[in-house]
Amino acid sequence: METKKVLVINGHPDKISFNEEIAQAYLKELADLGTEATYLPLRDLKFDPVLRNGYRLISELEPDLKNAVELIKKSTHIVWIHPLWWFGMPALLKGFIDRVFLPDIAFSFNKETGEEKPLLGGRSARIISTGDAGKDLYEKVFNNSAITQLKLGILEFSGFDPVSVNYIAPIYLKTREELDVYLDEIRAAAKEDFKLIS
């Protein structure tokens, strides 16, 4: 049976964060279930996060981004972890996606017909986003802004299916015990993903 490859991407720029705890809890749960995953904290990569010329003139990928592209292509399940800042993803994560999810990597574009085709099909994903806005407020007032962008506009557009979502909130002023309850949710998500990819 083919081994399923899991990639965990952390888009938080600070290692001392609850997002790092989430990543480690997810990775440990998978390891306990017998599945190893590759961990990619974007804060450790060296790259220009600005797509300076759009798609008109695509800059050569830095070595860290070339490696990231290979990891994405080899993976069958990718977990995206990020905080919700100003109801969007951090600039680090957005810049990574801008630079990596390029034509002929994430999608193809027919200049004559305008037809777009996803190139990353056959993969599943999970988004784990943290925030301080309560779930009802985020959903009803802000329309799940960053999650909609990442889930629909980026991952599903590129062929990922299914894409599961965990919005972990609120984080601010939570006790250690309350944060540990959130981590239990992450461990449960890892178990769900293990069943999905097994």
Low-pLDDT stretches are none
Helix content: 25-40%
Characterize the overall form. Answer: globular
Helix-strand makeup class: alpha/beta
> Radius of gyration, rounded?
17 Å
CATH fold call = Rossmann fold
Let me know the number of strands: 7
Number of domains: 1
The CATH architecture name reads 3-Layer(aba) Sandwich
Query: What is the terminal separation in angstroms?
Result: 9 Å
**Count of discrete alpha- or pi-helical segments spanning 4 or more residues:** 6
Most strands sheet: 5 strands, parallel
Strand order of the largest sheet: 2-1-3-6-7
* Strand residues, percent: 15-25%
Q: Name the CATH superfamily assignment.
A: Flavodoxin domain
Helix and strand pattern: EHEHEHEEEHHEH
Mean pLDDT across the residues is: 94
The CATH class label is Alpha Beta
Keywords: Oxidoreductase
Family: Belongs to the NAD(P)H dehydrogenase (quinone) family.
Organism: Chryseobacterium piperi
Protein name: Flavodoxin-like fold domain-containing protein
Tell me about this structure:
Keywords: Oxidoreductase. This is Flavodoxin-like fold domain-containing protein. InterPro entries: Flavodoxin_fold, Flavoprotein-like_sf, NAD(P)H_dehydrogenase_qn. It comes from Chryseobacterium piperi. This protein is an alpha/beta fold and 198 residues long. It has one domain: 3-Layer(aba) Sandwich (Rossmann fold), CATH 3.40.50. 40% of the residues lie in helices and 18% in strands. The strands form two sheets. Strands 2-1-3-6-7 form a five-stranded parallel sheet, with helices on both faces. The protein has a two-stranded antiparallel sheet with strand order 4-5. β1, α1 and β2 form a beta-alpha-beta unit. α1 crosses α6. The N and C termini lie close together (9 Å). The model has no long low-confidence stretch (mean pLDDT 94).
